[in-house]
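User: Hi! I'm working on a homework problem where we have to compare a predicted structure to a textbook description. Could you give me the structure for the chain below?
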Amino acid sequence: MALQERGSFRAEIFRRKPVTAPTEGGHGGLVRMIGTFRLTMFGIGATVGTGVFFVMHEAVPLAGPAVIVAFVIAGIAAGLSALCYAEMASAVPVSGSTYSYAYATMGEIIAMVVAACLLLEYGVSTAAVAVGWSGYLNELLENLVGWRFPEALSGSFVEGGFINLPAVLLVALCAFLLIRGASESATINAIMVVIKIGVLLLFAAVAFTAFDSNNFADFAPEGAAGITAAAGTIFFTFIGLDAVSTAGDEVKDPQRTMPRAIIGALIAVIALYVLVAVAALGTQPWTAFSDPEQGEAGLSRILENVTGTAWPGTVLAAGAVISIFSVTLVVMYGQTRILFAMGRDGMLPKAFSKVNPKTQTPVTNTVVVAIVVGLAAAFVPLDELWDLVSIGTLIAFIAVSVGVIVLRRTRPDLPRGFKVPGYPVTPVLSVLVCGYVLSGLHWTTYLWFLLWLAIVLAFYLLWGRKHSALRDES
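Assistant: Happy to help. Predicted structure tokens:
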């Protein structure tokens, strides 16, 4: 009897969601309205901004000028994973990203592990980016009108303030746009992405006028360990690739559109990252990036030092405000769609899967995300949590790569709009490279991650397992 119960429990937690062909109208009230260009802009919008506006001052002190190599390593790992994402997105074109892919290939409990990773990376990333946005907004306001938000309204208690009001306002604005509609949000994001690319190209053009190759003399002061640590810190910026796949239910012709958008976004992101990193490092010694003021508004400060005037820094600060707005918008979008998919599957209360018939968006879902993220951005110092986003992103990328192998074996007949070149070497390499980058993260990151994972799995075993939509079907 005990063996039978154990067998039944094991079958229950490893049950798989059926893979179904995409429908013209999406699922659960979501509508397919997003094309290739706007979806590619989703990927760029969720990625470019954090890597160049925030992570430079975190990663450069770890690796020195060799941070360029760290960007390339992170890009290679992301590139291998992007090919796997492209195949999975074409084979399982639904909302929920890696969570839905894991559910279809490896079973329910593995899907919840992946969901824990995704909710961690999206939640922390959105709040942390919103906090960082405050610094650039204050820089812009000070340059334009000579006023900035007072310290009490620009940081948490730990940072000497009371509340980070600009961060809360940003989250509220993004929530408003997402409630208005996915198509409108995608259009606004595309406009902001075009502006941010223009601003970054301007930065590179101005920075190269002060380029000094001597700044690269001590290229890798911390050796391979420093490069690996920097790559781990940088990797969370590639969250945009996952964000593209969260839009599966709202994309036109997803089996073709999603692979093109993922690969197109990856190429654009890596090119911009390397260009800006080389330009920035050429203007000053790498040790200058550990300056706290550089962390708040680093690139704009570089331009002010290069030109001796405020206007380039003001333009860059404006670009950063727009750029980080688009990052927050898309990452919040991604989190709401993951929660939508979990609600539809019964892993969360059904309220998370309800779609407003007028706006065709999950309003309740979006409001909950905005409240939680807004509170975190308002009162919690998040500077030390970037690596938590990286660990969530890396594990999600590994899950997608393994999912490609599993789905090839279990459903070789499934129509695929894109197939990973070099299979099975490519997904195996993706797992190995992501594992290598994971090895560079600090042990405390793993500790916090395991604590969060335990909470999510406890919720699944006590509640989600009993309310699963697959349980109702069995």
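For your comparison, note the following. The chain has a mean pLDDT of 81. Residues 31-473 form a domain with the Amino acid/polyamine transporter I fold (CATH 1.20.1740.10). Good luck with the assignment!
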